[in-house]
């Protein structure tokens, strides 16, 4: 809808009195009738209007350029290879064997990482840079949880129960639980306590002080490389309400690290998955080096290029 159309629509309105004097209700009915003509026009012309929107969107943004970005194409190839390796390992070492609870946990976490990274790339290709940063934050936090569960494998079944409990907890807040679900919810509370509802409630047997149940506690124990931290802090500034998030415009050069670092995370998780699945040495060495060499090529080929376009 352009300014010309809106100007014409306002000028054509039959109402002249917009004060709160006189018969306000009657005038509101007249206004409703006039507004209904507007909405009917929109709905009757929906195909043309939405086509116009997409044409304007693509013409006025960097979307077409982004979709032809060499960096993004390489990133998609990296993801495709990583998923292919995962799909090679899973039926052979997970589905057809009695896998360890750690291997099963890594399988679930890796699938989540792949899904999040696919979202990151899709959002970047459509110019949704703020959303890229938000999605990166989720991916990084999932990575920290994975590393922490590797250190404390006894927490894996509790972590799985925590996921089930949170579903019941959210439903209980919305008063949507059945009587059977309410009973299961109460069983969880009796077993783990009310603070099990906290985001990191599943860590309480290890992190006994509730004040310490924070992501930074997990990060410190996992001894995550220092270069991960600053990028996460930047992401938090954009995700949480802040002056930075509200006033700044994000450009393609700013977004590049948020697309490159997840590849590093995927390398870590694939290597852990290979180890836990006890993949035979020949396959393990080839798969590990295949993924890591692709990542190194991307880092080296684009190290002097700030922008992703």
Description:
It contains 14 helices and no strands. It is mainly alpha-helical and 309 residues long. The radius of gyration is 26 Å and the shape is globular. The model has no long low-confidence stretch (mean pLDDT 87).
Which labels suit this protein?
globular, single chain, mainly alpha, 14 helices, 0% strand, 309 residues
Most strands sheet:
none
Poorly predicted runs of 5 or more residues: none
What fraction strand? under 5%
**SSE order:** HHHHHHHHHHHHHH
Judged by helices, strands and strand pairing, the structural class is mainly alpha
The amount of helix comes to over 70%
Span of the ends, CA to CA: 30 Å
- Count of DSSP E strands? 0
Task: Please work out how many helical segments DSSP would assign.
Answer: 14
CA-based shape: globular
In short:
This protein has 309 residues and is mainly alpha-helical. The chain has helices spanning 3-11, 24-44, 46-60, 63-67, 70-95, 101-125, 129-151, 156-173, 179-192, 215-222, 228-239, 243-247, 252-276, 281-301.
SSE topology:
Elements: H1 3-11, H2 24-44, H3 46-60, H4 63-67, H5 70-95, H6 101-125, H7 129-151, H8 156-173, H9 179-192, H10 215-222, H11 228-239, H12 243-247, H13 252-276, H14 281-301
Helix pairs in contact: 5-6, 5-13, 5-14, 6-7, 6-13, 7-10, 7-11, 7-13, 8-9, 13-14
């Amino acid at each position: 809808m352009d300014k010309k159309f809106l100007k014409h629509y306002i000028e054509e309105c039959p109402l002249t009195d917009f004060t709160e004097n006189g018969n306000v209700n009657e005038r509101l009915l007249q206004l409703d009738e006039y507004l209904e003509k507007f909405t009917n026009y929109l709905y009757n012309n929906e195909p043309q209007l939405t086509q116009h929107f997409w044409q304007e969107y693509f013409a006025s943004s960097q979307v077409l350029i982004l979709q032809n970005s060499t960096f993004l194409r390489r990133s998609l190839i990296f993801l495709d290879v990583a998923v292919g390796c995962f799909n090679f390992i899973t039926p052979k070492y997970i589905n057809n064997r009695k896998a360890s609870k750690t291997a099963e946990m890594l399988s679930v976490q890796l699938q989540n990482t792949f899904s999040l990274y696919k979202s990151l790339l899709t959002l970047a290709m459509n110019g949704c840079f703020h959303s890229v940063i938000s999605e990166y934050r989720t991916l990084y936090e999932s990575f920290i949880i994975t590393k922490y569960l590797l250190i404390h494998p006894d927490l894996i079944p509790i972590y799985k129960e925590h996921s089930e409990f949170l579903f019941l907890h959210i439903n209980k807040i919305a008063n949507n639980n059945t009587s059977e679900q309410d009973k299961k919810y109460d069983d969880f509370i009796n077993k783990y306590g009310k603070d099990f509802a906290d985001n990191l409630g599943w860590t309480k047997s290890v992190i006994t002080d509730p004040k310490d149940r924070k992501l930074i506690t997990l990060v410190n124990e996992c001894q995550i490389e220092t270069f991960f931290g600053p990028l996460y802090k930047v992401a938090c500034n954009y995700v949480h309400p802040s002056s930075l998030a509200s006033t700044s415009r994000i450009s393609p050069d700013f977004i590049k690290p948020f697309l490159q670092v997840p590849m590093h995370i995927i390398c870590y998780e694939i290597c852990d998955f290979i180890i836990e699945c006890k993949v035979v040495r020949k396959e393990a060495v080839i798969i590990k080096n295949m993924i890591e060499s692709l990542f190194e090529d991307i880092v080296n080929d684009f190290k002097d290029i700030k922008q992703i376009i």
